[in-house]
Structures are given as structure tokens and as C-alpha cells.
Design a protein that fits this description.
The chain is an alpha/beta fold. The chain is built from 18 helices and 18 strands. Helix 3 crosses helix 7 and helix 4 packs parallel to helix 5. The longest helix is centred in the N-terminal third of the chain and has 32 residues.
């Protein structure tokens, strides 16, 4: 079933109007600046909730404590997404919405979105795949933040309605004379999206017999906002699915195309080919086998799917396999037991085995690796690049990786500038937990003074502060100290409106983080600050 979102003007009978439509219009007519202020306050508080939940999870001593902390963190992030959808709907309707164009890494943008939904997908035992055509450019100019928002909306929906199998993204591109059309397909193996939601819109326009439930309205708003964002990027949004009536696991595929500016020489170097590699894919679930098979075949390998019962027979046919991917999901399939059994066969004695587990590896997996029964264990959901790299290494196709530069605990000196005492306390705890030294100030003026007196690797600075805001402080620091001789400036803002990131970067910030802030994102941002203080001290500043 193919559907496309269309704008429909309601024609109420007998002069009557739909109550939901009027409610939407009254909401939209509210001052957008008021909604922006509301969003700022909500995000400020959500930042504290998410950060505190992350700290609780890190220090949890039992699985129940970790689970409860994860519930709090996930719920807060869902509220943040709802806030974003409402604010975007208001801003789009007000005509004040603008795109912030800048160069961005196309593949990294997609992979970061998949990483954000990986935990939720992993909790359901779902697989994640990402297929990018070789001619997709590595770098393009566009609004990566809005592209991430589109992808995350569709990915979260895919995870929510999928209970077995997996989700995936297919990416292709088309040259359009200086511009590049990036075409995305987000697919899942879950139940279909109800037709009433697909027919819904931001104005509450639905079919004559549709009745939206409270949960449906949020889904309609989210899809309508996504449609508008795609159209603002000169694209279109489509959906193809078997429909709810087709039964469970009918699957849904959302497709959209956006235009971006191509950069000369921006085509990515493709991943190291696995051409000629013969891969045995063993899984109990047919969807699992299909997803893994398609993934490795994209890299040039030949995949042979098999059930646990078919595995021994498959080993005796044709030339020896170069590698085996074995699902480990007891009691449906015991990958450890199967791996041990396969090792007793004559032909696979030297065949590397990668175990793909639905749970975190334990002592049994470690013992199997130590004894050589398996060569690697990956925990679902497995990012495609991770699967590729591990297959290359254990299969003898990849060069040895250079170890990533480690951030020695305490090596970074970080300044935090925020006027909210709750956020000050939280950020200090988060940064200290990462092993760094922290100083705290309350406004931009104090931040400039602190940078003049002390060498810092990074300055985490809120944008909205009294006396001197973060934008003015960033400009003052950039005027006084050249790049490389000043701290890395990282904007922390609860404002998520159009142009916010562009304004921060124009003021001199090196990086931008929208609240609520996750510990992993903060750690990555600080990793980029390694060496900033050393440069200043070497320059005698």
C-alpha cells in the first residue's frame, strides 16, 4: 500500500467545525516566542532529570536500580521529543522557521541516529542495519540537525511498533547538477501504521469515519511536522506498508528525499570490501538471517543462511566458509553450544566464529573466546560499521586499527558557565564523573574573566545567562584569543529553535549541545578538547 501525505482543507457540513481542528488552530495562534520560552524551561528541567538518571545508572549496584534509572532517562527523552515536535509545529505555522546550512558528514549523521535508538532496539532484541550506496557523498551542505530530527522521528516510530526482526536504513543519492538528492528508506518488520494516523495532519484533518485517540494525535503531529521538515528541504515523504490488516510483521517503509549541496571530492571512500568472503549466517529467526545476509552482501561477501539444524550440512557443501555469524539467543538458539559442536567438524576447525548475542557477554562467552571456540562476541543491536570492522579483523581482511586517543582522567580542565544552580551541580557531577577537573561560574562575564586567569581545555557555556549571555561571551573570548589558544567553546542550550545552532557557531562556539544532555554526548564533546590547554600553555598564554 502506497500512501503520500497531502494537505487537505476541511469542509465541515452545516457550518460545523471539528473540535480538534479548532483546538489545533488556537494552539498555533499562540505567540511562538511564548512557546519558545516554555520549551526552554522544560528542557532546562529535563536536562537535570536525564543527567541525574545517567549518574544513578552509572552508580547503580543492582539490575533493578539500573532498569529504574533507564526508565526515567527514556521517559525524559520522550518528553523532550514531544516538546520539539510542538515547538516545530508552532514555528513552521508562524512562518519563522529557517534552515541552518553547514557542511556535515552524511554517513556519520545516520550512524549517530541509529546509535541513539540502539538501546531501545536492543532491549527488544531487534537488529539494526544501514546500507549506503558507494556513490553517496561523504560530506554535503545542509541542515544536519533537522535531518537528524527527521530520521529519529521515523526510527523511534519503527522501534516502537516492531517486536521481532529489525529496523534499517537504506541510503542512495542522485546528482542533480551541483546539488545531491539524498534518498532515505527507513524500514521495519513491525506492525503497520494505522491508516487513520497516515490520513491525519497538523490541522486534525482525517477521514470521515476516523476518530483519533489521544495517543494518535501526538503521532499525527509528529508525522505532520516531519513532512513539513522534509518539504522545507525540497523533498517529499512517502510510506509503503502491508497495513495493519496484513497482520503482524507486515512491515513499514518510510521513504523521503532531501536536497543538499554537494561538495567537490566529497564522495566517501567505501568500506574495505569483503569481496569473495563466504559467510555462514546461522539464526533461528528468518528475519534475523535475512537482515544479516543482506548486510554482509552489501560489502561484497556471499551469505549462506542456515538454521541451527542445517548448519552441519551447510559446512560440507562447496568451499570452506571464511567466517560464521551465529545468533546467540537461548533458549531459541544456543550459539555457544552450536559453536562448540561446529568445532568438532573437520572443515570448520579454523573458521572464525562471531557470536551475536541478545545480552551482554558473561563468563561463558569469555571462556569460549579464551579457548578459541569463538573469536568475537557482539551485542545486539550491532551497528553496521562495527560488524564490518570485526568481520574484517577476524577474517584477515583489515589493517590493524590504531588505538583511539585516550583521555587520561584528570587531563582536562573544564570551565562550566551556567546561571541555573541545578544545572551547575549536575554538570559538575557529570564532568567530574568523567575524570576531569571542574570550575564553575554563573554568567558570561565571569566566564571571560576566568578564561583570562586560568588555562582551560573546554568551556561548557549556557547561551541564556544574565549580565552577559553566552553568545556575547563567546564573541569576547574569540576576539581576545585566536583559535588554538583558547578553550574549546561548547554551547549548552535549552533553545532548540531554528537557527540556534547557526547563531552559536557564528558567535564563535566550536560545538553545540542541545539539552537534555546525555553523558555519552558530553564525553565525546570533551574528547575533542584534548590538547587545547597544552596549546595555550605552549604559547605562553
Amino acid at each position: 500500500m502506497m500512501s503520500e501525505f497531502k494537505e487537505v482543507t476541511p469542509t465541515p457540513a452545516d457550518g460545523q467545525t471539528d473540535g480538534h481542528t479548532d483546538g489545533h488552530r488556537r494552539m498555533i495562534e499562540v505567540d511562538p516566542e511564548l512557546w519558545a520560552d516554555v520549551g526552554h524551561e522544560l528542557r532546562t528541567q529535563l536536562n537535570a532529570v536525564v543527567g541525574a538518571a545517567g549518574l544513578l545508572s552509572t552508580g547503580a549496584e543492582t539490575s533493578e536500580e539500573r532498569e529504574l534509572a533507564a526508565i526515567v532517562e527514556t521517559a525524559a527523552e520522550q518528553v523532550a521529543r514531544i516538546v520539539d515536535d510542538v515547538l516545530d509545529a508552532v514555528t513552521i505555522e508562524s512562518g519563522e522557521f529557517e534552515l541552518a546550512l553547514h557542511p556535515f558528514d552524511v554517513r556519520s549523521t545516520v550512524e549517530s541516529c541509529l546509535a541513539l535508538v540502539s538501546e531501545a532496539a536492543g532491549a527488544k532484541g531487534l537488529d539494526i542495519s544501514f546500507n549506503a550506496a558507494p556513490d553517496v557523498p561523504n560530506v554535503a551542505i545542509g541542515d544536519s540537525r533537522r535531518l537528524e530530527q527527521i530520521l529519529l522521528t521515523l526510527l523511534h516510530g519503527a522501534v516502537d511498533r516492531t517486536y521481532r526482526g529489525g529496523i534499517g536504513i537504506d541510503l542512495t543519492s542522485e546528482d542533480r547538477g551541483g546539488l545531491v538528492a539524498l534518498s532515505f528508506k527507513i524500514r521495519d518488520t513491525g506492525r503497520g501504521v494505522p491508516a487513520r494516523i497516515l490520513r491525519g495532519g497538523l490541522d486534525g484533518v482525517t477521514g470521515p469515519h476516523d476518530r483519533l485517540e489521544p495517543g494518535d494525535r501526538l503521532s499525527v503531529l509528529s508525522l505532520r511536522t516531519t513532512k513539513h521538515l522534509v518539504e522545507m528541504m525540497d523533498g517529499d515523504l512517502r510510506v509503503e506498508q502491508g497495513g495493519v490488516e496484513a497482520g503482524p510483521d507486515a512491515g513499514t517503509t518510510f521513504g523521503f528525499t532531501v536536497l543538499a549541496e554537494a561538495l567537490p571530492g566529497g564522495v566517501a571512500t567505501t568500506l574495505l570490501t569483503l569481496e569473495g568472503m563466504r559467510v555462514l549466517v546461522i539464526a533461528a529467526d528468518p528475519t534475523e538471517k535475512r537482515v544479516l545476509g543482506l548486510q554482509v552482501e552489501q560489502w561484497g561477501a556471499t551469505a549462506t543462511p542456515a538454521t541451527p539444524e542445517e548448519a552441519q550440512g551447510a559446512l560440507q557443501v562447496g568451499r570452506p566458509f571464511d567466517i560464521a555469524l551465529i545468533e546467540h539467543r537461548p533458549p531459541a538458539i544456543d550459539g555457544l553450544e552450536l559453536s562448540t559442536a561446529l568445532r568438532t567438524s573437520r572443515r570448520p576447525a579454523q573458521m572464525p566464529i562471531i557470536l551475536i548475542s541478545a545480552s551482554t557477554p558473561g563468563p561463558a562467552e569469555a571462556a569460549a573466546a579464551d579457548s578459541g571456540v569463538i573469536q568475537a562476541t557482539l551485542t545486539k543491536p550491532v551497528p553496521p560499521r562495527t560488524l564490518h570492522d570485526v568481520m574484517s579483523q577476524v577474517g584477515g581482511r583489515g589493517a590493524q586499527r590504531q588505538p583511539a586517543q585516550e583521555v587520561v582522567p584528570g587531563a582536562l580542565r573544564v570551565l562550566i558557565a551556567d546561571d541555573n544552580a541545578l544545572n551547575q551541580n549536575l554538570l559538575k557531577r557529570l564532568v567530574t564523573k568523567l575524570g576531569h577537573t571542574v570550575d564553575v561560574v554563573s554568567n558570561g562575564r565571569e566566564a571571560v574573566a576566568a578564561v583570562a586567569q586560568q588555562s582551560y581545555d573546554a568551556l561548557l557555556m549556557d547561551v541564556l545567562m544574565p549580565e552577559m549571555d553566552g553568545l556575547a561571551a563567546a564573541e569576547a573570548i574569540c576576539r581576545r584569543w585566536p583559535r588554538g589558544n583558547r578553550p574549546r567553546l561548547i554551547a549548552l542550550t535549552a533553545m532548540a529553535g531554528p537557527g540556534d545552532q547557526e547563531r552559536c557557531l557564528r558567535a564563535g562556539y566550536d560545538d553545540y549541545m542541545s539539552k537534555p544532555i546525555r553523558t555519552d554526548d558530553l564525553s565525546e564533546a570533551l574528547r575533542a578538547a584534548v590538547g587545547y590547554r597544552t596549546n595555550r600553555e605552549a604559547a605562553g598564554i
